[in-house]
Amino acid sequence: MADTGKLHREKHVKYFKRMLQIIPGQFASLDTHRMTIAYFALSGLDLLGALHEVEKEKQAIIEWIYSLQVVPNSSGTNLLHCGFRGSSTLGHSFDTKKSQQQNIAYDSGHVTMSYTALACLLILGDDLSRVNRPAVAAGLRSLQQEDGSFSCVPEGSETDMRFVYCACCVSHMLNDWSGMNKEKTISYILNSISYEGGVGQGPGGEAHGGPTFCSIASLFLMDELDMSLTLQQKEKLKRWCIFRQQSGFQGRPNKPVDTCYSFWIGATLQLLGVLDLTNFLCSRTFILSTQSAITGGLAKWPDISPDPLHTYLGICGLALMGEPGLAAVHPALNITQRAADHLFNLQKVWEDGS
Ligand SMILES: [Zn+2]
């Protein structure tokens, strides 16, 4: 039953804790992407001010994440495969004590898993000292295409704005941009701006809320948002984003509203400094209508089963609008401001030490 009025905070805390314990059968196909589910759950608990609820499990989760890091073998022949895996479904089996040198075929980093692994480590308070930063950067370099876009794995895959964003997050978090050619990345983003004002997955694509966020957040993380877009491009972009508000936000014109776009579009508007031009009451009412008061969790629409992505992004959307009881969110890195501040403190230490 759809429920508006208040955020069922305790239920959502339980929902995220459950997602950390076991993946429900309906999400079994996501087994190779378990890192992303851990990220939704951990960052969600952080937003809800409930990370202490997994205090006892924190260290075990950190060890699990590091066990999924693909590092260079003794001859360095797998350097382009370095980064983080999403789970031990493929490649070497789960073993936190096994030598990281024993990589086998199918052990390849995935750029989204590298981003979410680093995000999880930061959320958990880790100092990233066990991250092989040069190897992660080398892995990124192997993913960038001639047109500036990124694939997600070195074996080849679709290439689009999602992976551009993940590559920018990884580079920003590691304070190391040697994993990409920034000029090519910016060129790919600018070539993907549609006549509508928003941004598509690639050149010639229809403007869409997801890649619009990915591209604008990427420019922000590269410190290029102010300089790379013309005033007219910025104004058209703001207009396109603001017009995505119906009750909640939709991802494209004439599509139904969906909880996740309260973050994808909301965070873009926040980065552009105009989120307050939208109707917060309307957005809040829609987001709350998609939560389950029984199992906890939020769905893309009212009265359907919740999932971790929409639960997390719906709560993020509320946090952007200043919902009481929720932590502030860093709109470009998509982690709490608290976790981002932890990162910036680490980066200061790295800079002082170099
Ligand atoms: Zn959605």
Automatic annotation (TrEMBL):
<keyword id="KW-0862">Zinc</keyword>
<comment type="similarity">
    <text>Belongs to the protein prenyltransferase subunit beta family.</text>
</comment>
<comment type="subunit">
    <text>Heterodimer of FNTA and PGGT1B. PGGT1B mediates interaction with substrate peptides.</text>
</comment>
<dbReference type="Pfam" id="PF00432">
    <property type="entry name" value="Prenyltrans"/>
</dbReference>
<protein>
    <recommendedName>
        <fullName>Geranylgeranyl transferase type-1 subunit beta</fullName>
        <ecNumber>2.5.1.59</ecNumber>
    </recommendedName>
</protein>
<feature type="domain" description="Prenyltransferase alpha-alpha toroid">
    <location>
        <begin position="7"/>
        <end position="335"/>
    </location>
</feature>
<dbReference type="InterPro" id="IPR001330">
    <property type="entry name" value="Prenyltrans"/>
</dbReference>
<dbReference type="GO" id="GO:0046872">
    <property type="term" value="F:metal ion binding"/>
</dbReference>
<keyword id="KW-0637">Prenyltransferase</keyword>
<dbReference type="GO" id="GO:0004662">
    <property type="term" value="F:CAAX-protein geranylgeranyltransferase activity"/>
</dbReference>
<keyword id="KW-0479">Metal-binding</keyword>
<dbReference type="InterPro" id="IPR045089">
    <property type="entry name" value="PGGT1B-like"/>
</dbReference>
<keyword id="KW-0808">Transferase</keyword>
<keyword id="KW-0460">Magnesium</keyword>
<keyword id="KW-0677">Repeat</keyword>
<dbReference type="GO" id="GO:0005953">
    <property type="term" value="C:CAAX-protein geranylgeranyltransferase complex"/>
</dbReference>
<dbReference type="InterPro" id="IPR008930">
    <property type="entry name" value="Terpenoid_cyclase/PrenylTrfase"/>
</dbReference>
<dbReference type="InterPro" id="IPR041960">
    <property type="entry name" value="GGTase_I_beta"/>
</dbReference>
